[in-house]
Specification:
This protein is mainly α. The protein is 61% helix and 0% strand. The chain has a domain of 91 residues: Alpha Horseshoe (Serine Threonine Protein Phosphatase 5, Tetratricopeptide repeat), CATH 1.25.40.10.
Length: 136
């Protein structure tokens, strides 16, 4: 009987803890889901870019940590829009926040700095990645 009570108590304690929201290391803000959806449906690029911008702004505003890869993805989206200096700024943020990405980010920065602007990904039908920054 004593074993049964201890088991029931452990079960109830575990069930109660399972309901507590888990605090994560990063402010994901749906970035992981948005990235997955973007890979499955690349034609929905504008929604993906808007989500990246929102995740970054929210994390920076609240003092949270932007998830790994988010600055780089957003920088690449800016590069695809022809906004090279903005793209480089986000590649530098990724490199600074995530030192293990530094070699890759340095290569991207070097290549973007010397490359001619790419052709736009698609004719934007929604708001560009950011409403501020350099003009196309």
């Amino acid at each position: 009987m004593r074993f049964l009570r201890m088991g029931a108590t452990a079960f109830l304690a575990g069930a109660a803890l399972a309901c507590v929201p888990q605090k994560t290391m990063y402010r994901w803000g749906g970035y992981d889901d948005a990235l997955y959806r973007h890979y499955k449906n690349p034609q929905e690029r504008d929604e993906f870019v808007a989500k990246l911008q929102g995740v970054i702004e929210e994390a920076e505003k609240t003092g949270g940590v932007v998830p790994p890869g988010c600055y780089a993805e957003y920088g690449w989206a800016l590069y695809e829009e022809g906004r090279r200096s903005d793209a480089i700024a986000y590649f530098e943020k990724e490199s600074k926040r995530w030192p293990e990405s530094r070699p890759f980010m340095e290569k991207l920065i070097k290549n973007v700095a010397r490359a001619s602007p790419p052709a736009p990904a698609a004719a934007p039908t929604a708001v560009p990645a950011s409403s501020t920054g350099e003009k196309k």
